[in-house]
Amino acid sequence: MSRKKTIAGAFSAAAATYESAARAQVWAADCLVERLGTVAVPPRVLELGCGTGLLTRRLAAALPAGSAILATDLSPAMVAAAGAALPAISCAVMDAEAPDVAGPFDLIASSLAAQWFTDLPGTLARLAGLLAPGGRLLLTTLGAATFAQWKDAHRALGLESGVPDYPEAEALAALLPGAEVDARPLTLHYRDARTFLLSLQALGAQTPKPGHTPLSPGEVRRIIKDMGSPCAITWDILLLDYRREDGA
């Protein structure tokens, strides 16, 4: 099975539990809408990785009447959940890395989906090309300090975690010339590391980085024990803001 099918399957399986565990996702969506600010003219909007509609609902509330929102996700079950909750919003299954929609869009928005992209630089360039002159790309993704405590616990035992290598803010900004990137880290507290792992499963976000060899049950138990109870886990949220200049 391809990695994308694995990711889509994990999120589809979590469609019913996603919002119960989505504390960081709510934070990221709120940060994005805050950064968006006031929009006077109803825009044409493309959302990528809509999930159950956390960001979609916030965009619909923040944007003026008459805005046209197309919410998309790789997971059919997530799209179905978003569509059921938001019957007035257009929803579609789509791979954000291969957008099969016709632009231009005044706003392209995505919250905590880009960390799953296989080709982040290429995808950012393609999305920028779908913007209308003056259009805006706003997305949140995960940065290098994400799950630092979990990774540290692995290193202390001579083990490698399955957490992907996420970019620093400066490196992310460099992928799309003209983009601004701000860090909005959030540290969450869990009863223990096992509860953290269960929350990732509830989100559908448990797929490890490519090539990772799963730890043995004994190794996982050692990490959970060493991290103690309660344990703190940091989500390093990066917010990218890019505007396409007129004529670009």
TrEMBL record:
This is SAM-dependent methyltransferase. GO terms for molecular function: methyltransferase activity. Gene3D superfamilies: Vaccinia Virus protein VP39. InterPro entries: Methyltransf_25 (IPR041698), SAM-dependent_MTases_sf (IPR029063). Residues 45-135 form the Methyltransferase domain. SUPFAM superfamilies: S-adenosyl-L-methionine-dependent methyltransferases. PANTHER family: TRANS-ACONITATE 2-METHYLTRANSFERASE-RELATED. Keywords: Methyltransferase, Transferase. Signal peptide: none annotated. Coiled coil: none annotated. It holds the Pfam family Methyltransf_25. GO terms for biological process: methylation.
